[in-house]
Amino acid sequence: MIELNWEGVYPAVLTPFKENGDIDFEMFAKNTEAQIKAGVHGIIIAGSLGDAAVLEMDEKFELLTFTIKVVNGRVPVILNIAENTTKNAVNFAVKAKQLGADGLMLLPPMRYKADDREAVEYFKAVANATDLPILIYNNPVDYPVFVSLAMFEELQLCPTIKAVKESTRDLTNITRMKNRFRDRYKILAGVDTISLEALAVGADGWVFGLVDAFPKETVAMYNHVKNGEFAKALELYRWFMPLLELDIHPKLIQYIKLAATAEGISTPYLRAPRLPLVGEEAERINKVIADGIASRPKLD
């Protein structure tokens, strides 16, 4: 197991499909290699952007086994947990450890909007069932559970809960977390369109979406910030913004798969109920992608 420090760039990687709906493992490996070559710090699989909602449980474990083989110890491999019941989430965490995952990203219970007490007990049950380090996904916009400061206060008792994917879209929440807990939790910003601002107020890294299509540019932007080269980071960020906005839409999977396909590191295929884009929307999104590729800045 590779030690996780929860700093840097962590792609929430896509799950490419073949036209018949099967997982395209060859293309998945190609994208993973592009991420690692660019210098990412870990790989998160079967997340929201990785089509967690339409992957069968066995497919998620098959993907984990395949990813571990492809990565071969170069970066940590983190498996997302998105289950409906506490029992299934616990069993999922145990199986992930057995198969060799280095860490877990943990969503709140799916389908049921748990209250604060229920969500905390769910998180605790999973955390107590494994010694794998856990990243709590705090995204009340897409998953209606808001993990509050009071809830994180309770979760401090769980040593395996190490970090939070901060996707509340409220930048002040990063400062509140740092003021309350100092370095108890590492914070990975999870919204592409406020990623630079998140680093400026103390985030330790990113869980990124458009890195799936543009790994070199994403890692370069992060490194510029860490090297104190803010003007260079800002130049990249301004170029990137129209593309980053593809991340904050219900069709982010369709959009980002198209961007990664344009870069030769994904396929555009989907599993229903998601469908390919048509008409004006297809023209608009493909133009955003084409314009971004045509105007991409030269990296140092």
UniProtKB/TrEMBL annotation:
Organism whose genome encodes this protein: Sphingobacterium tabacisoli
Protein name as it appears in the record: Dihydrodipicolinate synthase family protein
One Pfam family named in its UniProt record: DHDPS
Keywords: Lyase
SMART domains: DHDPS (SM01130)
InterPro entries found in the cross-reference section: Aldolase_TIM, DapA-like
Similarity-based family: Belongs to the DapA family.
Domain of life where this protein originates: Bacteria
Statement: the UniProt record of this protein carries the keyword Lyase: yes
